[in-house]
């Protein structure tokens, strides 16, 4: 089962695994748009913020630098109120963190998470330690936590099916864009050919008119 919450911006989806086994499933099937949140240096729930579909499009990306720019833009796009809500939710769902006066919250794109066989269930590392961001000194905001908890809903999730549906949606959109670009290229080529044909016709008409003038001039010379 997965817990879902409603934040202040309905274009985002907030969810977390019920336990470490659910967290393991989320690690297998999350989307590129998913941002992972956790209490830094303490155990806590793995809380995810799913950005609007298409926020992280890696098609055609050929370098790590390009990918990092896309991810950085995605992280920077998160509104501060939503960021604060995520920080409060993570702190509240940490056995040690909820008791601490203040904690730091770490967040990073899901695709920056690293899992090895030697790791315990639900445990993760980072592919790039430097590609993390923090919300520092988070103190409990009881009113904000209570508001979020009132929206908590538990739902059975078919992780594999949802990921398949997501991948299919991505394929459809990319195929649509590809077809639109193809049709645009055909239209541009047709327009280019039409312009070329028009120029050719004007040149032919001009040449024919010039030839007529020459013939008429020659006829006048022999008159």
Walk me through this protein's architecture.
Helix 1 packs parallel to helix 5. A 7-stranded antiparallel β-sheet has the order 8-5-3-4-2-1-9. A two-stranded antiparallel sheet has the order 6-7. It is 48% helix and 17% strand. With 223 residues, the chain is α+β, with helices and mostly antiparallel strands. It has helices spanning 20-29, 64-76, 80-92, 142-149, 159-221, and strands at residues 2-5, 13-17, 34-39, 47-50, 103-109, 113-114, 125-126, 133-138, 153-155.
Compact description:
It is built from five helices and nine strands.
- Morphology call: elongated
Structural class estimated from helices and strands: alpha+beta
Strand count, sense and closure of the main sheet? 7 strands, antiparallel
Report the average pLDDT across residues: 88
Strand content: 15-25%
- The termini sit apart by 104 Å
Strands side by side in the biggest sheet: 8-5-3-4-2-1-9
Q: H/E series, N to C?
A: EEHEEHHEEEEHEH
Total of helices: 5
Write down how many β-strands occur, each being a DSSP E stretch of 2 or more residues.
Answer: 9
Uncertain regions spanning at least 5 consecutive residues: none
Query: How much helical structure, as a percent, in the residues?
Result: 40-55%
